[in-house]
Specification:
The protein is mostly helical. The protein has one domain. It has six helices and no strands. It starts with a helix and ends with a helix.
Amino acid sequence: MHLLGRLVQYRIFTKSEMSIYLAIAVGGSAGAVSRYWVSSATYSWLGQQFPWGTLAVNLLGSLVMGFLSVLLVHRFQVSDEVRIGLLAGFLGSFTTFSTFAMDSLHLAGNGALVKLAGYILLSVTLCILGAWAGLFTARQFI
C-alpha cells in the first residue's frame, strides 16, 4: 500500500482531508514559484536598493486575496479544494510576511531607518488598501 493509503488507513488523514491537503500543496508549490518569478522580475526592473520585490508580491497577493475571497464564496460555486488551494495554498505561499520581516531587519541593521519606516508604512498601507480594493472590486460582480 502506498504512503497516502496508509495515512488514511491509520486515520492520520481522512480521505476528504487528503484532497484538501493535496490542493494546498499544489497551490503552495505554484505560489512559491510565482513569488520567485514576480519578485525577481521586480528587482530586475526597479533594482535592489529597496525591497521592491517583497512589496510587489505582498501587494499583489493582498489584492488577489481580497478579490478571490469574495468571488469564490459569493459568486462562484467552487469546491473547498479549489477555494482553499487558491487562498491558503497559492496565495499563502505567494505572499510572504517572513521575508517582509527579514527585509525590515536588514534595513534596520544597515542603519537605513528612513527606508525602513517607508517600507513598513508602504507595505502595511498598500497591502491593506490592496485587500480592500480586491474586496470592493469583487463585490461589483455579485
